[in-house]
Design goal:
The structure is a single chain. This protein is about 45% helix and about 15% strand. The chain is built from 8 helices and 6 strands. A 6-stranded parallel sheet has the order 3-4-2-1-5-6, sandwiched between helices. About 30% of the residues are buried. Bound molecules: 3-methylbut-3-enyl trihydrogen diphosphate (2 copies) and magnesium ion (MG). One 3-methylbut-3-enyl trihydrogen diphosphate binds near residues 10 and 12. One 3-methylbut-3-enyl trihydrogen diphosphate binds near residues 10, 53, 54 and 58.
């Protein structure tokens, strides 16, 4: 099992259009699917699941759609709290949370606080998230540490810099799934995706079922992750750790 699966949940609008429904109905079905997939990922024993729910660029959408998305998010979090608590799921958030509507921030902080002791699974929502914004925020954080004398820029390494990212408490994603047939990352986890396996499917998010998650994981398991080494080197390592 991949330890960390991250999903770009795309295609709610197109799914709705194909079914003669409003975009809002597409987003409602999208939220239903969040429930289904988070549950399935938990049953599969995936330790970390990260969902791209709202990007910094999504503010450019019509006001009515943005506010509908915010309100769906608020309702989802409130409804889901019991389920998270019962199943030992801790909620984590990445993104500029301070720019979300006040009521959403309050629900988020409340849910994070109530689930903070849980460790069965970490559910991370990327909200008002953008990788470039994250990098700027990390640089600002790092330079303030240098100014305070807590870091020495001559010793900057990846470990230090990545501890300034929103994802400082998460492992890098092993598998990134994008639904809806688009072949792009849309400003999602650009640095953390350095060695992620990426899986694209034509299915829109509301129709991406647990069986499709399983297909994505099977595909992931058929790949060889070489991290710059040769295939032969990887086979040697595998041989040395697997019982004869
Ligand atoms: C994903 O579905 C949901 C969000 C980005 C919030 P879209 O709303 O982007 O659906 P399409 O891409 O228009 O079909
Ligand atoms: C990516 O989807 C963002 C989320 C899934 C939240 P978009 O629909 O915003 O991406 P683009 O605009 O097609 O690249
Ligand atoms: Mg889209």
């Amino acid at each position: 099992m991949p330890e960390h699966v991250a999903i770009i949940m795309d295609g709610n609008g197109r799914w709705a259009q194909r079914h003669g429904k409003s975009r809002l109905e597409g987003h409602r079905q999208g939220v239903e699917n969040v429930r289904r997939i988070v549950k399935a990922s938990r049953n599969l024993g995936i330790q970390h699941i990260t969902l791209y729910a709202f990007s910094v660029e999504n503010w450019k959408r019509p006001k009515s759609e943005v506010s509908a998305l915010m309100s769906l998010l608020n309702i989802y979090l409130k409804k889901e709290l019991e389920e998270l608590l019962q199943n030992g799921v801790r909620l984590n958030v990445i993104g500029r949370i301070e720019d979300l509507p006040k009521n959403v921030q309050k629900t988020l902080l409340d849910t994070i606080e109530k689930t903070k002791e849980n460790s069965q699974q970490i559910l991370t929502l990327a909200l008002n998230y953008g990788a470039r914004t994250e990098i700027l925020d990390a640089v600002a954080k790092y330079t303030s540490l240098v100014a305070a004398g807590k870091e020495d820029s001559a010793e900057l390494d990846w470990e230090t810099f990545s501890s300034c990212l929103y994802t400082h408490n998460l492992p890098d994603p092993d598998l990134i799934i994008r639904t809806s047939g688009e072949h792009r990352l849309s400003n999602f986890l650009l640095l953390q995706a350095a060695y992620a396996e990426i899986y694209f499917t034509q299915l829109c998010w509301p129709e991406f079922l647990p069986e499709h998650l399983l297909e994505a994981i099977e595909d992931y398991n058929s790949r060889e992750r070489r991290y710059g080494q040769t295939g032969e080197q990887i086979k040697e390592v595998k041989k040395s750790i697997s019982p004869a």
